[in-house]
C-alpha cells in the first residue's frame, strides 16, 4: 500500500485538504493501475517552517514547498516510482495552486519483513 504523507504550511482559504488527499490517491491509483483503496494519504499542517532566513505563516506559491514522503513496498521499478512522484507533484501543484516544481518528495522503500499490516508481517507484494 503506497502511503503519501504530506507536511505543509496552512493553506490559503478555499483549499480543501480532504479533496487534495483524495485526488492524490486517485491519481496514484490510476498510474499504478490498482484499486484506489490501496492508496493511503495523510496531511500534517506545519505551524513553523523556515526556508533559509524566510519564515511565513501561510503557503506561498513558489517557496516553502510541501514536504511529501512517499512510502511503498519494495520491488517497484524506478520508472514507476518516478512516474508516481511526478504525478503527486503535479497533483499537489494543481490542487494547492502552487508554481510548478514547488513540491519536495522523498521516496522511502519499505522492505519485506519490516512491515506489519493486516495483522501480519508482509514478506512480499
Layout of SSEs?
Layout: E1 3-8, H1 17-32, E2 40-45, E3 50-51, E4 54-55, E5 67-73, H2 78-96, E6 104-110, E7 115-117, E8 120-122
Parallel strand pairs: 1-2, 5-6
Antiparallel strand pairs: 1-5, 3-4, 7-8
Keywords for this structure?
single chain, 125 residues, alpha/beta, two-stranded antiparallel sheet, 28% helix, 29% strand
Account of the protein in words:
Helix content is 28%, strand content 29%. It has helices at 17-32, 78-96; strands at 3-8, 40-45, 50-51, 54-55, 67-73, 104-110, 115-117, 120-122. The protein has a 4-stranded mixed β-sheet, covered by helices on one side. The longest helix has 19 residues, at 78-96. The radius of gyration is 15 Å and the shape is globular. It starts with a strand and ends with a strand. The mean pLDDT is 96.
Strand order of the largest sheet: 2-1-5-6
**Helix percentage range:** 25-40%
C-alpha Rg (nearest Å): 15 Å
Give the SSE order as H and E letters. EHEEEEHEEE
Distance between the termini: 9 Å
Judging from the principal axes of the Cα atoms, what is the shape?
globular
Question: Average pLDDT across residues?
Answer: 96
How many strand elements? 8
State the major sheet: 4 strands, mixed
Secondary structure tally, helices: 2
Strand coverage percent: 25-35%
List unreliable stretches of 5+ residues.
Answer: none
What is the SS-derived class? alpha/beta
Task: Offer a quick outline of the entry.
By secondary structure, this protein is an alpha/beta fold.
